[in-house]
Structure formats: C-alpha cells, structure tokens
Amino acid sequence: MPSLSFFNRALNAHRRAMVAGVAASAAVGATALPGTASAAPNLVSGATYELRPAHTTAPPMLLEVLGRSSSPGTSIIQNVRATSGTGEEQRFVIRQAGTTSSGRPYFRVRPSYNSNLCLDANSDGRVRTGTCTPGVRSQQLYFDSVNGSVVHMITVRGTGQVLDVAGASEFAGAPLIQFGSNGQPNQRFVLTRVA
User: How far is CA 90 from the centre of its chain?
Assistant: First the structure.
C-alpha cells in the first residue's frame, strides 16, 4: 500500500489539476460530463450498495473502508473487488437521514458491517469513517442521479463539495476526498444495490 505522503502528494496534484481544468472549462464554457442531475430517484433508503467510481474500468474499483476497520477516523479508499471474505468493507447502507426545508432528501452512509460508523467528510478534505451523530452535516450527503441513471454525484451537505477520488487515480488505495464539483468522472459513482 502506498504511503500517506503519496496520498498527500496525489491530493495536492489533484487540486492543482482541477483548478486548472475548471478554469479551462470555464474559458470555453464546457463541462466534462453533460447531463442534468435529479435528487436520488432510484435510491432505496436502508438498502445496501456497492459504490464504483465511474472513472475506473479495468479493473473497476469499489469504495472500501480501509482494512475493514471499526475505528472512527479510518480512510475510505478505492480498491479492486474483494475476492476473499465477505466483501463487507466494500458495501454501504444508504439511509435517508432527513429532508431540507425545500424538500431535498439527504442521506447517511455507513459500512454494512458496523451500524455505529458513518462516512464523514472531514475539514481536512479527506473522507473517513466517523461515529454516526445525528445533525452532523459532514455526515449528511445528497445523492444526485445523472440523467436518471444509477450514476450519482454525491454532495456533502455541510460544505457543498462533492466526493472525489483524489487525482482521478485508477490505482488501488487512492483516497476518497471532498472537492469542488468539476463534472469529471472521478466525481461520479455507479451505485449497485446488493441487498
């Protein structure tokens, strides 16, 4: 597994590339992936899903709790599909946690094997596990379907930033971060219901 300094370098490179890419897109009025988003039309609250970063194809990666840890503060990474064990570290329960005053639903995501942990978009930009706490906006996520499909942009309610695979990496172990929306495929996730 690559070192933490590798991930920090990748995160910094990703930030620089995304700033440059957003500026270039704005200059020509382009977006990388066209399409309109709608609020979670095909999510089933309480169901279990695998989340595949849309930019990974060969081999496709899945989001995973590093080391199947039950400790708060554990990184969420992308990794190849588990071929041994239960694969629970790559399965997440998505449950509606509430609705905004405008009627937009938001959700909490937890590892399938631990009901006390939720995905938490920390202030340092990394997405880790945290102890599920009602009302914590860094644990509240909007799921916006792209063109009504199973592909979603996932936005952190507390920051307005989206979940993003750092550096658009296609390598196992790349961390999940939050970052400003830029329409790139590493900010889109294919949801597959498994239970």
Answer: 12
